[in-house]
Amino acid sequence: MIYTFTVGTRGSALAIAQTKQIIALMQQQNPDATFSIKIIQTKGDAITEIPLDKIGDKGLFVSEIEHQLLSGQIDIAIHSYKDLPSNITPGLIIAHPPARAPRQDALVLRDGTISSLDAIPRNATIATGSLRRKLQLLHHRPDLNVVPIRGNIDTRLKKLSDVDGIVIAAAGLARLDLAHKISYLFPEDILVPAAAQGAIAIQCRATDTTAIACANSISDSTTALEVSAERAFLSAIDGSCHIPVGATAHLIDDTMYLKAIFGNTTTFITHSAEAHVTTEIQAQALGIATARSVLAQINAPSHAGMVYLVGAGPGDPGLLTLKALECIQKADVIVYDKLANPAFLASAKPSCKLIDAGKVSANHTLTQDQINETLAANAQDDVVVTRLKGGDPYVFGRGAEEAEYLAERGIPFEVVPGITSAIGGLCYAGIPVTHRNFASSFHVITGHQKANSDTINWPALATVGGTLIFLMGIANLESICYNLITHGLATTTPAAIVTNATTPHQQIVIGTLATLTNIAKSNAVTSPGIIVVGDVVSLQNQLDFFTKKPLFGKTIVVTRARSQSSSLSTALADLGAHVIEAPAFSIEPHPDNLLATIKSIDSYDFIAFTSQNGVEIFFETLFASGLDARSLAHAQITAIGSATASKLQQYGIHADIIPPKANSESLLAVLESIVTPAHKLLLVTATNSRDLLLNLSCHVDKVCAYATVPATTMPSIAAADYITFTCSSAVENFMAISGNANIIAKTVSIGNVTSAALQKYGLSIDLQAATATIADLVDTIVNDV
To answer: Is the preceding omega at residue 528 within 30 degrees of 0, hence cis?
Structure first.
């Protein structure tokens, strides 16, 4: 069927040129369609002498075009995306944009080129029609004479004889084949571009599905996500051409980096943010969050830095509070102690600056004075500093001293309490701090005091009763026991030391006040540790739950990709294991491979997924293309195993076919009994996957949704008891990194295919899961212990 579309646009040379370019792209994807161009004059075209920021009207270059689109006089409208108001006109829709042109601003000089902003002659006259550009230029070069200019690109270039240079969007010059006139391309950290600069907006009526499909046929997913973030910022900040506002987003892998500016007629502020983004909703959320941060920064006092004094708890990651995790995730700088579990730092954003403060007894990377100065020095402007401390900041953590230092200097701070090891650490050791039959009170005492000072009231402690808990006292253990005995506490009083509490390395030594010192020496007890004295110690063996976990004391290596490892790592850690994540590979999504396939998704009778990764990347790409699960209604969905089927259910899809065994051989056998030569099957898999399903007696299209990228480094696994492999890729990439190094640990395979890969490299298979599932893999290890 032949479709005819009337395309509306402005009459400028640039508008006509970019409209012709877009029509050519749509024509290529829709050969049966025909297009005609209608030129429409806008209010912005009619008013040429007044600066844009003085006119005071949104939609200067689009209102008349939108009116004709709504009335049916045109079918499609083409705009420079940056000209569109941030709020979409009711009844209209903006299609997913095609790939954007370079978004930077360009400087056109009368003569030659320059290599930097500093090379512009002093006091030069530079023309621009944008307040955003003017303020940023003057911020970097206050000597420049920046004057207004109006008109289309040709008109502006003709005015070059009156000024030294003109700032124009590079995309406009490129689309008019005038890129050779660019003297200097402004880096985005000097001139933040307008939101969606370089992108083209294709507008249709919301009810015209034919025009929408035509427009979406040339869409670019990366541009769509970047523009979504930029325009969400613009909308939330309520920005227009009348105020200096700009935003530029870059999607690299699955991380989006957004930089924005906002201000008034005399000044502006900048803000950068980043987030994991694979969908338009996530992109818009980043834009909105950035706008809120900018507005908060505008409304905040001149010194807007913030310090969070955060208690990280005694060590178990599960004991970290939600508030503490939030402070880690949003921090620009983290100053951390050795007593804080290093696993917590994995939750920091990639750009976060990490500062090691040390703070292990007698081994400080930074002194306390240096830590105080570091907190204050980094808490500038909008920087968020998180001071991460073991236990609770106000329980012998010197958090109060740090808070005093900040308060004296007017630096805002908040304190986030943590679970103190005095309670949580002893709990994990099976020692309650109170018990109706043994102790009605407990007392927490520092075992580490200022040099040449002893402020502890030993007579009172020896007679007060209850449970006595000494923190940071291992080095003074002998003195502590001596003073308590000397001042009247019985030598037979139960006493214990718990080291590395709540972690897989937790150790407990038990004795009495008379024997504890010698027992500690014979067991080479070292810091960090908790000393506890009192009758509650006698309950330890009965109430111990942590060291009785089935995998306590075992070190297990997980070689899955980090994005996949959490379920296995969590399951093992919950059973007491010390888990070393040594990902042999990472997942590199290839959504572009899926885009063409998704356009013809309704041509497939079967869609087969061979991994959870394939499911996730397929559906995120499907959603980014403007489709949803309804587009799969005609096909039978196949999952290679229960884990992949569970992943499908997260997207509202129940797998029609699941083979009895989670491997390609079993899936091939099941499908071969169902398909016919007339059927068409889409295989969603990885680039380096096995191709068994290509042997099916039907038409098979293989699409590689992702690749497994080998890691380049690996942590030491010499102390491991077990090393787990959940796929053949993990084996191959692990061997590529480690070579043929002798593996002392027991190897644990998830199934036959993985075991075959281990044998290929001459490795023994010590254990293999009964079925190829994470649950059975974990059970196999537990049963071996």
So the answer is: yes
Is residue 188 within 8 A of residue 140, CB to CB? The reply is no
Query: Catalytic pick from 53, 83, 164, 337?
Result: 337
Active site residue 337: yes
- Whether 64 contacts 42, CB under 8 Å: yes
Q: Give the H or E element holding residue 181.
A: none
Average of per-residue pLDDT across 302-327 = 88
Neighbours of 68 (CB within 10 A): 15
Residue pair 509/496 in contact (Cβ under 8 Å)? The answer is yes
Tokens standing for 726? 């959940």
Q: What tokens appear for 713 in the block?
A: 């480094």
How many Å from the N-terminal Cα to the C-terminal Cα in the chain? 69
Name the band, by pLDDT with cuts 50, 70 and 90, for residue 359. Answer: low
Q: SS3 for 479? A: helix
Could you give the CA distance from residue 316 to residue 500 in angstroms, rounded to a whole number? 10
Q: Please choose, from the candidates 665, 730, 716, the residue with its C-alpha nearest in 3D space to the C-alpha of residue 693.
A: 665
442 or 688: which leads in pLDDT: 442
- pTM of the prediction? 0.54
List, as one string, the DSSP characters of 106-135. EEEESS---SSGGGSPTT-EEEES-HHHHH
Q: What does each C-alpha distance from 165 to 124, 170, 193 come to in angstroms?
A: 8, 14, 18
User: Which one is catalytic: 82, 338, 359, 647?
Assistant: 359
Structure tokens at 706: 């992702």
Query: Cα separation of 39 and 65, whole Å?
Result: 9
Residue 497, both tokens? 């030391």
Tokens 């005093």: give the residue.
404
CA distance to 304, 339, 348, 467, 644, per residue, from 313 (Å): 28, 9, 17, 21, 36
3-class secondary structure per residue, 393-411: CCCCCCHHHHHHHHHHCCC
CB-CB contact of 651 with 620 (8 Å): no
Q: Which of 538, 483, 482, 489 is nearest to 510 (CA)?
A: 538
Active site residue 332: no
pLDDT digits (tens, 9 = 90+) for 434-493: 999 999 999 999 987 655 567 899 999 999 999 999 998 999 999 999 999 999 999 999
Structure-block tokens of residue 331:
């921090």
Q: How far is 124 from 145, CA to CA, in rounded Å?
A: 6
Q: Which of 454, 439, 447 is nearest to 493 (CA)?
A: 439
Helical residues (DSSP H) of 564-683, grouped into ranges: 565-574, 591-599, 612-624, 642-649, 664-672
Q: Is the pLDDT of residue 54 over 60?
A: no
Count the Cβ atoms, other than its own, within 10 Å of residue 472: 21
Q: Who has greater pLDDT, 512 or 115? A: 512
For residue 128, what are the β-bridge partners? 148
- Written as six digits, the tokens of 546 are 């942590």
Contact 535, 555 (CB under 8 A): no
For tokens 């994807």, the residue is: 29
Among 525, 336, 538, smallest CA distance to 418 is for 336
DSSP 363: B
Sheet holding 33-39, edge to edge: 33-39, 3-9, 76-80, 200-205, 92-94
Closest CA to 287 of 352, 351, 236, 350: 236
3 state SS of 456: coil
- Angle between helix axes 221-237 and 591-599 (nearest 10 degrees) is 100
Q: What is the pLDDT of residues 502-543, one digit of tens each?
A: 999 999 999 999 999 999 999 999 888 999 999 999 999 999
Residue type, position 168, single letter: I
